[in-house]
Design a protein that fits this description.
This protein has 263 residues and is α/β, with parallel strands linked by helices. The protein is 38% helix and 15% strand. The radius of gyration is 17 Å and the shape is globular. The chain binds phosphoenolpyruvate and manganese (II) ion. One of its GO terms (biological process) is aromatic amino acid family biosynthetic process.
Length: 263
């Protein structure tokens, strides 16, 4: 169902002001985790002013350590919904388990499936049945075939609105947190009609690399970006070392727009 050959043309996913695919470019920006109402509202205003069309923010966080901050759960979802009410940004947030799908879907516009859950087939079916767009992140050790077959689980439930997110894979290399293969963009565009979103934040794990890789993703033909942005990255409760501040995000967007216009 993800096949470009079968559908014949690329698909565009549209929700509120966000559009990605078939020539439309969508930018999802916001903190790794929702931390407070003030943090998410400030960020929503700043990223919207710089050109984002969707707001990200985790309320259910898949942390490597069970002792790390796990997210504000429903309180965080309510803060995201309040930010949408003010800005009209589409809300993109992760759902970690089948038991949370209805709760997250009540507040979110796009359901994010995290890398760690890419092959959680019951969860893929559950989000497929909800009827809201899904951002499916590539598993850190998943092949492209496995990634595309995971998307099939969602599409098979009758939900056509799946975006594929390349967020980097695990390799022997350690100078970046993951290895971000931008060849995924032309490969997936040849194989599938689904929009391809690049995540240079998780893909590199270093703030200083994010702008350059965001620009490179655009040049490679990506249909959108997902970027971690925080009012004060040094005090972030998760992933601050790979987050842009507001100024860094604005400058990145300026460069992204220059490259988009040149394509
Ligand atoms: C995230 O988007 O904050 C996240 C946890 O991403 P991933 O599932 O790609 O690690
Ligand atoms: Mn993160």
């Amino acid at each position: 169902m993800a096949s470009l050959e079968v559908r014949g043309e690329p698909s565009c996913i549209e929700v509120l002001d966000f559009k990605a695919g078939a020539g439309q470019f969508g930018v999802i920006a916001g903190p790794c985790s929702v931390e407070s109402e003030d943090q998410i509202l400030q960020t929503a205003r700043a990223v919207k002013a710089a050109g984002a069309t969707a707001l990200r923010g985790g309320a259910f966080k898949p942390r490597t350590s069970p002792y790390s901050f796990q997210g504000l759960k429903e309180d965080g979802l309510k803060m995201l919904a309040a930010a949408r009410d003010e800005t009209n940004l589409a809300i993109v947030t992760e759902v970690m388990g089948t038991g949370d799908v209805d709760l997250v879907a009540k507040y979110a516009d796009v359901l994010q499936i995290g890398a760690r859950n890419m092959q959680n087939y019951r969860l893929l079916e559950a989000v497929g049945a909800v009827g809201k767009p899904v951002l499916l992140k590539r598993g850190a050790s998943a092949t492209m075939d496995e990634f595309l077959l995971a998307a099939e689980y969602i599409l098979n439930e009758g939900n056509p609105d799946v975006m594929l997110c390349e967020r980097g894979i695990r390799t022997f290399e350690e100078h970046t947190r993951f290895t971000l293969p931008l060849a995924s963009v032309p490969y997936l565009h040849r194989k599938t009609h689904l929009p391809v979103i690049i995540d240079p934040s998780h893909g590199t794990g270093h703030t200083y690399m994010v702008p350059d890789m965001a620009v490179a993703a655009v040049a490679a033909g990506a249909d959108g970006l997902i970027l971690e942005v925080h009012p004060d990255p040094s005090s972030a409760m998760s992933d601050g070392y790979q987050s842009l501040n507001f100024e860094g995000f604005e400058r990145t967007m300026q460069r992204v727009n220059v490259v988009r216009q040149a394509l």
